[in-house]
Specification:
Number of strands: 11
Number of helices: 20
Largest sheet: 6 strands, mixed
Shape: globular
Strand order of the largest sheet: 1-2-11-10-8-9
Oligomer: single chain
Structural class: alpha/beta
Length: 496
């Protein structure tokens, strides 16, 4: 059992004192990898903290677990599976890499056929999925597809019919391709949405709507049974978890809309971060250092949340993506041994876009009573063509917020106008927001989650917690579930 005593004994030294005591602090706690500058100097990490966490990492065999991940060993122990999303980027067990590359080639061939008119005059791609089958593709298309793309893409996850109807108003059913993304091809919300899209296409005059369906799944046989021809099924390995799947055929809408070159660059950017994570020493390994900071705040200082603020409109969906990645991966209560964890696990991830959020939630962050570690994400190269004052104001605001949170401002006799300061933040500055850098950014967060899970001795790759509510909902729809009196009353009020 890992010994947390040295970590729990760590003290919180004011950030301004840390800078005053160590003229090399910025150099020690910043790094440049894959077109991204990482700065942890405004966190409470110290040499003692790094030493304590490094010792814990050795006790938890982080290096061994890392090698097991890339070797394709069955580190997802509760489901008796390997974890092979790095293989989708070309990094991992050679057999897994070869399988991923073959499936990528299959996807590229289908995209070539669609572009060649094999499925008719396609102008729109309607992608239905939920969770990782929607959040990843949505992030990619929104971040990288702001300029004109090859196809109009809409990604629908919500079973609320209004989500589909909004797309139906914009798309021509006779020029629409339906992509159904479901690992099991049984996901209730996704299959209900898919069936409604097929009916809409029929009503719109499409004689063979199933001939316009592409299935993205780890269960090809179920897609065939549903009505999709085998030639339009893009499989991916069942060892690729949903929230780690955008690198596989789940990334189809991004690959077809942005072009194959962009999708390849996305994979290569992630692979560059994979190599850094796999080969770098702990004290200079950016996902490892990020996890050390995460655990310092959750385990030593009791922080329950972590805010992510992207000062770039193109990254507006990143906080939502990270919510699932981090909270579904590490929101666990049991260890790998099946015992209670006995300590906090994942922080609650939340956030938004700057500068909007400065006028919404930053009041609490500056003067409230909660300790909330923040992560700022900005891009040096602007994505717009407006006068440079816009981008300069954007990034200046981001950097000033980090400085103000750390420095604070005393106002004796007027507490309402005082800022306590000593509030931590990490800053990530991307050179540019292109496919390669976005791939590296997402892979960085994936490995950060893995390190957190390893040091907490939990399995970051299952998600049984999402099942119970879904099971009860299915039973309720069939009238076979007995609920508490409150829920029973609410059901009667909702449905009569």
């Amino acid at each position: 059992m890992a010994d947390w005593s040295e970590i729990e004994a760590l003290k919180r030294t004011p950030l301004t004192d840390l800078f005053a005591a160590d003229p090399d602090r910025l150099k020690k706690y910043s790094a440049d990898v894959a077109g991204i500058h990482f700065d942890w100097s405004k966190t409470h990490l110290t040499d003692d903290a790094i030493a304590a966490f490094s010792k814990l990492a050795r006790e938890c065999d982080l290096a061994g677990r890392r090698e097991a991940l890339f070797a394709g060993e069955k580190i997802n122990t509760t489901e008796d599976r390997a974890v092979t999303h790095p293989a989708e980027r070309g990094e991992g067990n050679p057999d897994d890499v070869a399988k991923a590359q073959a499936l990528h080639a299959r996807m590229r061939s289908l995209i070539d056929a669609i572009e060649g008119g094999a499925l008719g005059p396609i102008r729109h791609v309607l992608h239905v999925g939920i969770g990782g089958s929607a959040l990843g593709p949505d992030l990619l298309v929104d971040a990288l597809g702001r300029e004109e793309t090859r196809y109009d893409v809409a990604i629908v996850s919500n079973v609320d019919g209004m989500a589909l109807e909004d797309v139906f108003k914009r798309f021509d059913p006779t020029a629409t391709l339906l992509a159904v993304a479901s690992k099991t091809f049984t996901t209730t919300e996704t299959m209900m949405n898919a069936e409604s899209v097929v009916e809409w296409m029929k009503a719109g005059g499409v004689e063979d709507p199933y001939g316009r369906v592409v299935a993205l799944t780890a269960e090809p046989d179920k897609a065939i049974a549903w009505g999709v021809d085998e030639t339009r099924i893009l499989p991916f390995a069942d060892t690729v978890g949903g929230r780690y799947s955008l690198w596989s055929s789940i990334g189809f809408p991004a690959a077809i809309a942005l072009g194959w070159d962009a999708f390849s660059e996305l994979l290569e950017g992630a692979a560059e971060m994979d190599r850094h994570f796999r080969l770098s020493a702990l004290h200079e390994n950016v996902p490892v250092l990020a996890a050390f900071a995460d655990l310092f705040y959750t385990q030593v200082l009791g922080a329950e949340t972590r805010g992510v603020f992207c000062y770039d409109e193109r990254l507006r969906l990143l906080p939502s993506y990270l919510q699932q990645l981090e909270m579904e991966s590490n929101g666990k209560g049991a260890t790998l041994d099946g015992q209670p964890v006995g300590r906090p696990t994942a922080a609650i991830t939340w956030g938004g876009v700057g500068t909007d959020q400065q006028h919404a939630v930053f009041q609490l962050l500056h003067q409230g009573t909660h300790l909330v570690p923040l992560e700022f994400v900005g891009v040096i190269e602007p994505g717009d063509t407006l006068p440079e004052d816009h981008h300069k104001a954007l990034l200046t605001n981001m950097l000033a917020q980090g400085a103000a949170l750390m420095k604070g401002k005393l106002n004796p006799g007027d507490l309402a106008r005082a800022y306590p300061g000593d509030r931590p933040s990490t800053t990530l500055l991307l050179d540019d927001l292109d496919a390669r850098t976005l791939g590296a950014l997402i892979a960085y967060h994936e490995h950060r989650v893995f390190v957190n899970g390893t040091l907490l001795n939990i399995n970051s790759f299952d998600q049984f917690g999402v099942e119970l509510g879904k099971e009860m909902a299915k039973a309720a729809q069939k009238g076979g579930e007995e609920f508490d009196v409150s829920t029973t009353d609410l059901l009667k009020r909702a449905f009569g």
